[in-house]
Amino acid sequence: MTITLVNPTGLPTVDVYRQVSVATGSKLIFVAGQVAWDADGKTVDEGDLAAQVEQCYLNVGTALAGVGASFRDVAKLNVHVAGWTPDQMPALLDGIARAAARLGTPVTPPATLLGVAALDVPEHLVEVEATAVID
Questions:
Q1: Which residues contact 123 (CB under 8 A, 6 or more apart)?
Q2: Does the global pTM surpass 0.85?
Q3: At 2, is the pLDDT very low, low, confident or very high (cuts 50, 70, 90)?
Q4: Rounded Cα–Cα distance for residues 64 and 128 (Å)
């Protein structure tokens, strides 16, 4: 395995991600920010943050699989949420959990959550980008 996820002593343990990842592979994979598009480029679940988070994570999974990787190879995620407010956290976490269940793997690499004013189109509520490492 090329990625080891760690919660070092002295940092808080967070359920949905680990604080550090250690990558030992030789190939870096950079996945463009994925939004809630289906395979035809149509936005899914307009207005439903949890469903859009789930679709974004599934799209990241599809992108990774396309180059021989999976979420087990992800070293870092960046999650951008349009108009973020802390009361949206349950929907975000629900979407992540649903995606993890469908992907059949934990999606707990280190992650940064950024609230942004807007994304590419008003229908997109979230965008997820990933960096992975494989041998």
A1: 36, 43, 46
A2: yes
A3: confident
A4: 13
